[in-house]
# Entry
Amino acid sequence: MTAKIPLVLCPGLLCDAALWRHQIENLADIADITVGDFTIDDSLPGMASRLLATAPERFALAGLSMGGYVAQEIIRQAPERVTRLALLDTSARADTPEQTKRRRDLMDLAGRGRFRGVTPQLMPLLIHPDRLEDEPLTQAIMAMAENVGPEAFLRQQTAIAARPDGRGDLAGIACPTLVLCGRQDRLTPVEVNVEIAEGIPGADLVILGDCGHMTTMERPEATTAAMRVWLTER
# Structure
């Protein structure tokens, strides 16, 4: 019997294991899966160090959005431990002034006791416009945000805002890498994902049509299929 692949999944901002529900359920036959907890630390190095302290000695690593920022930091800290890398709907760039302002505005909203107003404001940026009336999807996203809560949200935003420009590190990534994104991703557009794929030697690029930022939840079957190929055929 073939041993399962240790796989660590990194959630995004205001996300938890529910972000990866379809992948956890449908890759369980080939992967031994754990999900990182990024609710405690307020820096990417802190998040990465905490995950590395409990992760398997060597493992495949996948991260979406903020989870992709953490995954890149893990590669910087311990590249020898990562056997495969999947970066979903993320960026290797630092925040732009516009992104930082939007981040600070949302943090201010949460700090004034209006945390429940954050996710509705973000929703048009998170999912394809055609899915804004998809109640099961939007409710699942809202539930994740409630589970993460306002204090962790502030810590996560602080970590994201301080992230470095990691484009210069991409050429040093030597493990088999998948870069995947939604064609209509408004938060981390196609071009910044293409930039990552072009920067990593031999990386595979998958762009999912009719899909926004939340690929694992919007196009779960297609995302899981791409991750299965990444885990088994690279």
